[in-house]
Amino acid sequence: MRSYFNSGLFLAAILLFFLPFLEVRCGDGSRFAKMNGFDMAFARGPSFESEESEEFIADNEELMQKMQAEKKQDWFTLGVLLALGFGIVIQFIPKFQKPVFSILISFFSVVLLSVMMYAIRKVWDQQMAVYLDNPFFKNMFYVRLHFGIGLWLVIGLNSLIIIQNIIFFFQDRRASFLQEYKPENN
Prior knowledge:
This protein is α+β, with helices and mostly antiparallel strands.
């Protein structure tokens, strides 16, 4: 039963990769572009909210070439995706320390996503600093980066997997201790 429950949680975490991981919002709060977890893991690039934005990018050859050149696979997101897939598989390997490895996989995923968030925020802030120092651009627009609901839910679900498997681990320890030191009936 635990194996199915753990596998279901790992599968749910993978399915959350279809939700937005990154969002670029304008100063008025409207969403300009977004990327889900699979877009980031497999270098598919952002999807734009309006047709005008897509047409502008498609018509601007220089910007289109720059975007194509900057499409890079996010190894952090891909690593988390692979780790979560491994988390599903290990649940069905007999005589395997499932709670321990589930904790390690989920902890690894949370750490990778946290490092990814830090790296993205740092690069974003450096690139935006160039525009915000220029008074012309500062008055013209303000664009913010938000981490999407999918990313937060994956982190939350991995935290739940950690807590759940810590409980399973101590339940197993207690059961084995009680079985080993069970007083015999005389």
